[in-house]
Amino acid sequence: MKQNVYRILKERGFLYQTTDDKALKDLLDRRKITCYVGFDATADSLHVGSLVPIMGLLHMQLCGHRSIALLGGGTTMVGDPSGRTEMRQILSIEQIKAFGERFKPQFAKYLSFEEGKGLLLNNADWLLSLNYIEFLRDIGRHFSVNRMLTTESVRQRLETGLSFIEFNYMLLQAYDFYVLARDYDCEIQMGGQDQWGNIVAGADLTRRKLGKQLYGMTFPLIMTSSGEKFGKSAGNAIWLDKNKTSPFDFYQYWRNVDDRDIEKYLGLFTLLPMDEVRRLPKENVNRAKEILAFEITRLAHGKEDAVQSYTASVRQFGSSDPEEKVATSSEISDVHPDTENTIPTIEFTSQLLKEGIWIVKLFVETGLCASNGEARRLIKQGGAYLNDTKIEDDSQEITPENLVDGALVLRAGKKRYRRVVFNVEK
Fold first, then answer.
1. In this structure, is residue 57 part of a structural domain?
2. 361 and 335 in one domain?
3. For FRET with 425, which of 143, 270, 347, 386 sits at 20 to 30 Å CA-CA?
4. Is residue 325 one of the residues assigned to a domain?
5. Beta strand residue intervals within 318-370, DSSP E
6. CATH number of the domain that 374 lies in?
């Protein structure tokens, strides 16, 4: 057996609460176990908010345990009320299935599903075929409504309203834990701190049904030191799908984190040794940010995209290291990609440019702003640039005379760039 994963998770900042600290440490010292985390398919990509549980599963695997990533093909149809002030949008079966398929290659970037190291399962396989009356008689009788009303996920919604379908979510998640314990010998469920009541309910159900002891671990809610919700940038989620958040934008998100969050993020989202995690921010804050961004981008998108994003960032903004090396633990090879192909590039027809395109519309169409109003405010506040020149007039029309080397470079604020070309005839 390798290192005790409990101690690793504790040291790196993953643990918020467990059902039994001592029993878990002893169990993980004695033998290999199977653990799981559930991921509901509520969007067409995972986002960085999913990285804490994914990294938790990865550490389990690295220490010799078996990890189960459970797609919520069934529970997504109900909707988890945890952490929500209103009911989630009801998705169709087809949407949920399609979203789940998009998750699979993203999990594979982090977790191995070969040679028994891990499993990728879908709770639709056992939830969608349930007979409701039979389920209520067999499973529902083990749940106290009074106790369910005291759980955080339910209590927080009582003032704004909790639908009956959402009230059933705890039973379904508990049933997942029971099925995984029964059929896959799963003994530990991990999840966010808002999942505590659901995890405990699953452990209690399994004890009643199988007489088997199960355990739970929860991860802390990650907030930035400035009090903002983790994983948001300019109001937009940071996705693991490179088509939704480019590797360059993904890298830049981590490169620009608050100085106070660097050590915490290095511990949670990289595999660097803890002595480096503690040392790097103290030696050079900006260097530590580059290492953080490179390591996380490498895990999410591969080394090539990480190298390209790093070198593009260095060419745009300079490097904190005169030798331009990331770290001995993750040395960048002698790859010198074309920066023009690394910064997100948007293509439009040549005809559109000949007719003239409104600068405000261009900022919206390239994804730098969410609306015309936001683009106008950006320009008025002095945060919009065209080819490194501040845009002063929000009525400006872009014409071929504005091209530099056949392209435009737009910038919103200090770090968000888009390259625009007009050579695609559609």
1. yes
2. no
3. 386
4. yes
5. 345-347, 357-358
6. 3.10.290.10
CA distances 425 to 243, 340, 355, 422, Å, are 22, 20, 14, 8
Report H helices in 80-189: 93-108, 124-127, 132-138, 145-148, 152-155, 164-167, 169-184
* pLDDT at residue 118, as a whole number: 96
Q: How far apart are alpha carbons 199 and 211 in whole angstroms?
A: 16
Question: Do 236 and 332 fall within a single domain?
Answer: yes
Say how many CA atoms lie within 13 Å of 119 toward its Cβ.
18
Residue 275 lies in domain: 232-341
| Token couple for 96 | 């949920």
Per-residue pLDDT of 142-162, as tens digits, reads: 776 667 677 766 666 666 656
Which residue, of 189, 219, 249, is where some domain finishes?
A: 219
How buried is 115 (Cβ within 10 angstroms: 0-12 exposed, 13-18 middle, 19+ buried)? exposed
The total number of structural domains in the chain stands at 3
pTM of the shown model: 0.76
| Cβ burial, residue 303 (10 Å; 0-12/13-18/19+) | middle
Boundary (domain end) residue, out of 190, 219, 248: 219
Question: How would you classify the pairing of strands 232-233 and 397-398?
Answer: unpaired
The CB density around residue 219, as the number of other CB atoms within 10 Å, is 23
Instruction: Write the pLDDT tens digit of every residue in 334-366.
Output: 444 444 556 777 788 777 777 788 888 888 888
> Which residues does residue 398 pair with via DSSP β-bridges, in sequence order?
357
